[in-house]
Design brief:
By secondary structure, the chain is of the alpha/beta class. The protein is 37% helix and 25% strand. It has helices spanning 48-55, 78-88, 104-114, 119-132, 148-160, 178-195, 206-209, 233-247, and strands at residues 2-13, 22-33, 37-41, 63-68, 71-72, 89-93, 166-170, 199-202, 214-219, 222-228. Helix 3 (104-114) packs across helix 4 and helix 3 packs parallel to helix 5 (148-160). Adenosine-5'-triphosphate binds at residues 13-14, 22, 24, 42, 44-50.
Length: 254
């Protein structure tokens, strides 16, 4: 079953095809199934962030529609969309976006607090996620007293706490060294395998993308091609590199 459907998304910045306008997305259609782990890759300026922002309701398309869990997000009012995003979508950012005045535990609980969930449910959920991501020992610490990798695992836990229909990640390994990147990508693998979570991420990092099951390549605002993992991660990494060489553009992180 498709959890996310995007049909013919067009995004023009700076007015409709007028002088000085930029067509960032030019008829993108995409379908993501429940339990899929998908990366979007492409050269700088190809429209990846614009696409992620539109799929996650942060930005509106100029035309086209997006539905998530069978709900049309392009037709929602501001309040409906804010509530939908809080309840159905999880976000992980390159900068972690943790609140320094809250402990790791409080940061993870925050979306449940906003939903006024019972305290016992919050405690159970935090312990479950902390165990899954091996951050039990950091729960009472503050974000500035833990490593970058632990901060990112806290941020992934927070994005999962309300059991979102889909999780979006924008360059989740962008601020991490290779060891922490591997740990975070293994966490994503784990939640996809064990919790049947759906994850859609944007990355320049070939190593990170090689953990996904599918990579969608975007160029000049259009879907160029996509590949699905068949063999092991190393073989997939080589195929991703071959595709990026054909796409051209900026140098990718390996
Ligand atoms: N707010 C904006 N106003 C005008 N043009 C924009 C805006 N945001 C993005 N663009 C343009 O839209 C195009 C796509 O940008 P986008 O940021 O989506 O690309 P990207 O693939 O994420 O790039 P990068 O890999 O460098 O982050 C680019 O030409 C960019 O200059």
């Amino acid at each position: 079953m498709a959890i996310l459907e995007a049909n013919n998304i067009v995004k023009v910045y700076g007015g409709y095809s007028g002088e000085g306008s930029t067509t960032a997305l030019d008829g993108v259609s995409l379908s993501v199934k429940e339990g899929e782990f998908v990366a979007i890759m492409g050269p700088s300026g190809s429209g990846k962030t614009t696409l992620l922002n539109i799929l996650s309701g942060i930005d509106q398309p100029t035309s086209g529609d997006v539905s998530i869990a069978s709900q049309e997000i392009s037709e929602m009012s501001g309040n409906e969309l804010a509530l939908f995003r809080r309840r159905q979508l999880g976000f992980v950012f390159q900068e972690f976006n943790l609140l320094d005045s809250l402990t790791v535990k409080e940061n993870i609980m925050l979306p449940m607090v906003l939903e006024k969930k019972p305290a016992t449910d919050m405690e159970t959920k935090v312990q479950e996620l902390a165990q899954l991501f091996e951050i039990q020992a950091t729960l009472e610490k503050y974000p500035y007293n833990i490593s970058g990798g632990q901060q990112q695992r806290t941020s992934v836990s927070r994005a999962l706490v309300n059991d979102p229909a889909i999780k979006f990640a924008d360059e989740p390994t962008g601020n991490l060294d290779s060891k922490a990147s591997a740990i975070i990508m293994e966490c994503f693998e784990k939640i996809v395998a064990e919790l049947n979570t759906t994850v859609l991420l944007v990355t320049h990092d070939v190593f990170a993308a090689s953990y996904c099951q599918k990579v969608v390549f975007i160029k000049d605002g259009k879907i160029h091609s996509s590949i699905v993992k068949k063999g092991n991660r190393k073989e997939f990494l080589d195929r991703i590199m071959d595709h990026l060489a054909v796409l051209g553009g900026r140098t990718y992180d390996i």
